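User: structure tokens for this one?
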Amino acid sequence: MMDQGGLASQWRTANDHIRELESSEVGLADNPPIEELSDDLRELADKVTADPVFQRSFQLLPASISVIELDKLVVFQKHIDLNFVEELKAALGSRPTAKEVFSFCLPTDPVLLPVRRLRVAQNAWTFISHSTDFRFLEPVLLEPKQVIGYRASGRVVGVVGLLLGYGSNYLNALKVGNRLIFNNGSHRAYALHELGIMKAPCLIQYVSRPEELGVTANREVVDEPERYVEAPRPPMLKDYFNPRLRQIIEVPRRMRQVRVTFGVEQTDLPA
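Assistant:
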């Protein structure tokens, strides 16, 4: 059983340090530098913006791909899987080129983890992945000609699809006021930081009004915008590496399970 009293004491010590930082590092997250990509990365950036996944996922706000400083990012994610970080570091290598770092941060042809699929009822399937990025994407109505290779038992006039898969998985931040709030890619940013790579290409979405924040940001940021947008010294990526603010513990590794069910109603109506 965990020593709850000891944990509470550690939390108070960390909280005291946070209050010190709120005085000594006021404005540290403000006006982070945003640099243009070098010419040799432009072709890769054009490939990202031409990807249908990018065009569908990032159509709501103005967006650009630029180079940012990792330590200047405001963060909301509180947990980092260090085993996964080591896997990412091994995949990238200890001395990656600029193009390899770009593809690591903004992949257009990512390696997708396999997914186990089980039919658990007449109207239900379960999908299991080792990645917590695995999710239900969206429902969609398709025309029969869009489904190729399936031999139906009747004359099909419509197809309802329930789509599952992985997100766009781009290193992504929201420019809100004079801050960059990290929106996706915490493990890759952590891995880069441990490799000594302190700047990285990042997809930046520009939020110009509160209503836009509600449709793009994580729920925690939406619920507590004053903590991330307005606080003089918000949580920052550099805090992950501060031994006075973090606690490394062993936890069982988890898998993501998504269960999908459907229902059908058939009724005869007066013509």
